[in-house]
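User: Quick sanity check before I run a bigger batch. Here is a single chain. Can you write out its predicted 3D structure?
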Amino acid sequence: MICSVLDLAHFLGKRWSIILLEEIALGKFVGFNDTLKRADITPKTLSNQLKEMENIGIVKKNGSEETLYTLTEKGIEFRKIVQEIKKFNIKWGDIKEDCSDKSCLECEKVSKPVDAV
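Assistant: Done. Predicted structure follows.
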């Protein structure tokens, strides 16, 4: 895309973007294989999504036996958008207030989502 705002909106609209962002931010992402089991996501989709997050500059790899990720400064700022969306949904949607402190995989509304890009 040509517009960076639209590029970011497109990224944010992908099914796994917010889920993985929150998992990493909250320290729930404890490795590739664990995430595959908990999220019911295909290895290809998970790998592609993590690479895209790296390319955008919102996460970085931490070298270890099991590859872990942390948010970059840009990722921390980007997460604020997700937190505002959660606040909006608490006020106007049908999610519970305690979902604001949970990753989307922990929230009662998400149960083994269908894998989609």
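The longest helix spans residues 73-92.

User: Great, the batch can go ahead then.
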